[in-house]
Specification:
This protein is of the alpha+beta class and 206 residues long. It has ten helices and five strands; from the N terminus they run βββαββααααααααα.
């Protein structure tokens, strides 16, 4: 099992790169986010990898950091999400933003990725909503997941109402959710809807 590669970047394409490790070129498939971070041909690079072996194919997937690799593993547990779709998702959503999108139950943001329609987005949100806390890479993201669980239990909560109000004002759900979550952390659990909306708007204006 190949878990990591360190060498020189030999060449890249739209969704792949070749890394020269001691004279051996390893072909990896990768997200556009990872490919951007690898930089220019000739750079010394290091990537975490996931190796898939089937009866008719062997493939190596590369990731700029462990959090992206872990998300790849989690996404591909969802029915209908293969390696290609998982990389498409990671190409448009960095791990923290993906965590927030799932916490906010934001189908629209997931549908930005090629190959993800409303039905698949809904399945991803449903199957992963209780599994993402361990992958949150910042305290804010971890808090967002906890808030999402609480909102699922109490849809009429002040936080949920404030998010809905900001969405009705034209903000994207993921932006509204993140702003209100930050506001709620600052104001405390007793904040009313109006206070959360005002604080959320202030967060959005920064």
């Amino acid at each position: 099992m190949i878990a990591k590669l360190s060498g020189l970047l030999d060449s890249t394409g739209l969704d792949w790169a070749i890394i020269d490790v001691g004279g051996v070129g390893y072909l990896i498939s990768a997200s556009t986010r990872t490919l951007r971070r690898l930089g220019s041909t000739g750079n010394a690079v290091s990537v975490h990898t996931e190796m898939w072996v089937s009866e008719d194919k062997m493939a190596l997937y590369g990731f700029a950091d462990i959090s992206e690799r872990d998300w790849f593993r989690l996404l591909t547990t969802v029915q209908g999400v293969g390696a290609r779709v998982a990389l498409n998702i990671l190409s448009v959503l960095a791990p923290d933003r993906l965590t927030s999108a799932i916490a906010a139950q934001d189908k629209t943001t997931l549908c930005e990725a090629d190959g993800v329609g409303p039905k698949l987005a809904a399945r991803i949100l449903n199957e992963l909503k209780d599994k993402v806390a361990s992958l949150a890479t910042t305290p804010v993201a971890a808090g967002a997941v906890s808030s999402a669980v609480a909102q699922a239990a109490a849809p009429s909560s002040n936080v949920g109402d404030a998010v809905s109000a900001l969405v009705n004002l034209g903000y994207k759900r993921i932006e509204a959710f993140t702003a209100v979550n930050k506001a709620a952390q600052g104001l405390g659990g007793g904040a009313d809807v109006s206070a959360l909306i005002r604080a959320g708007l202030k967060e959005l204006s920064q």
